[in-house]
Every structure is written in C-alpha cells, then in structure tokens.
Design brief:
By secondary structure, this protein is an alpha+beta fold. It is built from 2 helices and 8 strands. Strands 3-7-8 form a 3-stranded antiparallel β-sheet, with no helix packed on it. A 3-stranded antiparallel β-sheet has the order 4-5-6, with no helix packed on it. Helix 1 packs antiparallel against helix 2.
Length: about 180
C-alpha cells in the first residue's frame, strides 16, 4: 500500500512502513523540542524540573507524619568487568541507598486513612502526598527536584530553540 503525499511543489510516495517511521521520527523530534525548552524554562524560573502527579486522577492531601524510619537498603546490580579492574565478570555488585519509610495519616472526603509511604533517596526536604480520586488508599509521593544549574537551563533552552529552527528550515525547504 503506497501513499502519495504532495506538499507545495514537492511530491513523494511512501509505503505504510516508511510513513509510520516518518511519523514516529517527527513525533520524537517535536517531543524532544518541547521537553528541552520546558526544562530549560523551568530551570531558569527556579521551579521543580520533575512533574507533579496529574490533577485529573490524583488529589493532594494534607498528611500528618506519625512515624519516621530511615534506613539503608542494599541494591544489587550486575556490572560487567571494566578494563583495568580485576574481578569476576558479571559479579553482582551493589550500593547502599538511603530510604525513608513514613507512617502517615491523611483525610480524604471526611475519612481518615493510615498508610506507610516509601520514599527512596529522600534528602529531608518536604514531600507532598497525593491519593487516587476513586481509590484513596492508593497514594503517590512527590518530592520536587531542583538539580539543574543555571548554565544547564540556558543550554537546554538554546538546544531546544536550535532544534526548533532546524525543524522550521526543513519544513520551509519541503514547502518551497
């Protein structure tokens, strides 16, 4: 099955697989532009880079921390033997990660709930608790991250603008 595409004076014909591949590449290119410009602007405005849970499904609740238990968990992963390093290839290695377990109490629609909340790599900043609208026993934690510097934000903004200009030039070249 072939598709005939005419843009301006240019005419091309593609089969279904080529058309799907072109749509996927264009979608990836546009999403990369949006992501880089968004992250650059959020960094320069000193706002959190990561996104909050969707307000359509999740509701923010005020949580009262009843108990706090911090600990460390051993996470294992496989690491191939690196050149110049002695050891057995594919030997399981690991690292210690800081985890925090909180027993929280929250109220949603005049009902009280208690739950243990697990947050990995928690540095002691404030966290927000969200519960699912139709199942308030399911919760999600949100910890804002401000990990990027001003220079990285400017770089991401310029990268997004450069890619946007390249896309405009390619579209103008196809139309004319």
């Amino acid at each position: 099955m072939t598709f005939d595409i005419t843009i301006g004076n240019a005419h091309s014909s593609m089969n279904l697989i080529e058309l799907l591949l072109a749509v996927l590449l264009i979608g990836g290119f546009v999403s990369l532009i949006i992501l880089s410009i968004r992250r650059g602007v959020l960094t320069l405005l000193k706002k959190p880079v990561n996104a909050r849970p969707c307000a359509l499904f999740w509701t923010k609740v005020d949580a009262k921390v009843l108990d706090n238990a911090e600990g460390e968990v051993w996470h294992e992963f496989l690491l191939n033997d690196i050149k110049g390093r002695s050891g057995i290839p594919n030997q399981p290695r690991g690292q210690m990660r800081k985890v925090s377990n909180f027993k929280v109490e929250y109220t949603y629609q005049d009902k009280q709930y208690q739950k243990f909340v697990y947050i990995k790599d928690f540095s002691g900043d404030a966290f927000e608790l969200y519960c699912l609208r139709w199942n308030p026993e399911r919760t999600k934690t949100y910890v804002p991250t401000y990990e990027w510097s001003k220079g990285a934000g400017i770089s991401m903004l310029f990268f997004g603008i450069l890619m946007l200009l390249i896309g405009v030039i390619v579209i103008c070249g196809m139309v004319s």
